[in-house]
Amino acid sequence: MGWLVVLFDQVSVQYGAGPQILRDISFTLAPGSFHFLVGRSGAGKSSLLKLMYLGLRPSSGTVSLFGRDVASLSRRDFPAIRRRVGVVFQDFRLIPHLSALDNVALPLRVAGVREADIRRHCGELLSWVGLADHLGALPETLSGGQQQRVAIARAVIARPNLLLADEPTGNVDDVIGLRLMYLFEELNKLGTTVVVATHNDSLVSRFTHRQLRLEQNSLRVFDPAQPGRSRPAAAASPSSPGPA
Amino acid sequence: MLGLRSDLPLDRDAAARFLPWILGFMVYLAALAIGAAMVVDRLADRWQAGLTGNLTIEVPFDPDLGVTEKSIVIDRIVDVLSATPGIAGTTLLDDREIARLLEPWLGVSATELDIPLPALIAVTLRPGVVIDRASLQAGLAAIHPGTTIDDHGAWIDDALAFLRGLNLLAALLTGLVLAATTLTIVFVTRTGLSIHRGVIEIVHLIGATDSYVAQQFQAQALRHGLVGGAFGTLLAAATLLGIDQLLKQSAALAGALPAAQLDGLDLAPGMGLDLRLLPWQWAVLALLPVATAFIAMLTARWTVLRSLARLV
Ligand SMILES: Nc1ncnc2c1ncn2[C@@H]1O[C@H](COP(=O)(O)OP(=O)(O)OP(=O)(O)O)[C@@H](O)[C@H]1O
Ligand SMILES: [Mg+2]
Prior knowledge:
The structure holds two protein chains of two kinds. Chain A is α/β, with parallel strands linked by helices. Chain A has helices at residues 45-52, 78-82, 100-110, 115-128, 144-156, 174-189, 201-205; strands spanning 6-14, 20-29, 34-38, 60-65, 68-69, 85-88, 162-166, 193-197, 210-215, 218-222, 231-232. Chain A folds into two domains: 1-84 and 161-244, 3-Layer(aba) Sandwich (Rossmann fold); 96-159, no CATH class. Helix content of chain A is 30%, strand content 24%. In chain A, the strands form two sheets. In chain A, strands 6-7-8-3-9-10-11 form a seven-stranded mixed sheet, with helices on both faces. Chain A has a four-stranded antiparallel sheet with strand order 2-1-4-5, covered by helices on one side. In chain A, a hairpin with a 5-residue loop joins strand 1 (6-14) and strand 2 (20-29). Chain A is globular, with a radius of gyration of 18 Å. Chain B is an alpha+beta fold. The longest helix of chain B has 45 residues, at 210-254. Chain B has ten helices and four strands. Chains A and B meet through helix 2 and helix 3 of A and helix 7 of B. The site of magnesium ion has 4 residues of chain A, from helix 1. Adenosine-5'-triphosphate binds at residues 15, 18, 21, 39, 41-47, 90, 199 of chain A.
């Protein structure tokens, strides 16, 4: 691979004059990799994801997405990058007056996909996540878990290069949770780089994906395949994803 | 993208709901002003055409001059006029006709007052002809001293200056309406942007360009511009036609002149009060809703793009 999907080099984040949330974080995500992002509540998982969808600029350090230094991007460049990134927000961020179908359709409409294709694709995907009977439902009439599945469908509908899922199984039972994880794995097999933030340890332990662990504002990469070799994430280097 | 589908519920905003009404009112005012300006233009054209194609020769007579002497003088003057190149025809207004023209000013018939009346000869010029006034004047005065030529020049200049003033007023009013319309749309668009800040942020995060967001506002402005514009223009057209009708009816009722005679330029040019517009002028008015919609759309787009660019 000539380029990395994500590269963090000595990244720190601080909200206003508040405490440092992330300190000197360096890691890379290779194309097609799958990572869990774990850490206690308030550790900074959502903040880390924000950096990866241009929702937050680092206080210091370098963030590169798809080989481009974020600091060098202008507002005009944002849409093209964001269209390559699918995000499941922790608080869903569904658009309240749009139906489930229209919410899911948004990334396609924004990208100018034909209306006929949009309806078919979105209907199929919503059926797949078990919402076939709720295509026209407004978000407020859906349960928390149903809203979460709409949010997931919206994040994956456009086959992003990078999928960032923030606590995507927090509101569903284990059966549905696993089904959603399989959806992410399917997408990953098709080439999407996936990051799933969660504090559901039992879910994480069912898989052998590498883990980005946020502890005390720092990041460590843990590889379950080589449990002894948990190590602090060194300065970014293309070799950090490990054996391919 | 005519707003068949929208990601923002803009139509539910209170300010936006009033927009068609406000735009309708604005367009109504503008259409009246533009319509009035066009009526005035036509009047000016017709007055000028009617009057520049005409001269009036006034031949004053001594009260004691006999009828035969008078007619000899008049015949000789008419002969000279007829021999002058560029003159298409002459009409001698008889005493009764002159008396009728003077009656509104004198209150009674001039014949009853027994005052000396000049002879008036209406001269029609060939279109586009400029005659040598000075030499004609000299020739006529040689036949009968005191004979004068009136080409209505001073009167035309005054009337045209007045009409130009009216046109300027109409242009000013249209300009003000345009400014008010633009400001209203800027205000409504800004309000919409701030109400829907949250949704716009989500749409941005999903990868929407500023232009995509602007399209939503544009579509709404376009729709409101068309509806409000059509409404205002129709109402203005009805008003113009209504006033025209009223004027004709009251003129006909007053019996001053038959209504039919009001249409063209009559002996008294000021009476040619025709408010009807030509087909092309109606077409200009019919374009107003389209123009309004277009201006509304561009203003909305410009406002959105400018506001979003400031978001960093
Ligand atoms: N917009 C913000 N302004 C100020 N402080 C913030 C903001 N967002 C997050 N923080 C702070 O940053 C820290 C990390 O928050 P973040 O949401 O990244 O944690 P998290 O790991 O996602 O937690 P959780 O598991 O509960 O979602 C918290 O202490 C929080 O108070
Ligand atoms: Mg979080």
